[in-house]
Amino acid sequence: MSDSVQAEGTKDSPLLKRVGIIATCAVGGSLFALYAVAVPFVAPALRKVCLPFVPATSTQVIAAAKEGFSAVGFELNPWLVWYSRYRAWREGVHHRTSFHISDLWKVSFAQYSNVVIFGVPQMMEQLEAKLQSELQTSAKVVACRFPFPTWTPDHMAGEGIDTVWVYDAKTFKSQVTTVELLKNSEDSGTPHQ
User: Fold this and answer.
1) What is the pLDDT of residues 152-174, one digit of tens each?
2) What number of H helices and E strands is found in the chain?
3) Contact between 169 and 135 (Cβ < 8 Å)
4) What is the DSSP-derived secondary structure letter of residue 52?
5) Scanning 10, 104, 136, 137, which has the fewest C-beta atoms within 10 Å of its C-beta?
């Protein structure tokens, strides 16, 4: 009889069930939170063109806003966008800044006169073509860490990973126009067979 009482006491104990449910919920919730935080940082590395996940956007946009510019930042990572919004509020420039969760390749740059890019080497060639076609001739482009492959910078400052290149759209748009004119003159000058 004592064996049957002992077995019944440990079989489906309400306390053990409750501890098991709480432990399962805690582990499941922790894994979900880890997933929610990690995915925005890992996903850009899995794209065709690897994108940086450095909160450079907030630093650049806030610095521009402190200088009196209306500044806009684009970032894929929602955590960095929220952090940037918080930093702008904390720095007192939130009324001159806006941050958007957006894919850089889907944003039109036609309305901007100054563009600051914190990119990686793998994206600079494609980004150069995008900016070339979208920016007005009065625009300025600042590239941080990595230069554009074919544009000639008007100014350069810093060393190593802190190097910054400044490009004037008049310069890089005239380079393309000259190349196109030369290409067209070569095409018209060669006899067709």
Assistant:
1) 999 999 888 888 899 999 988 88
2) 6, 6
3) yes
4) -
5) 10
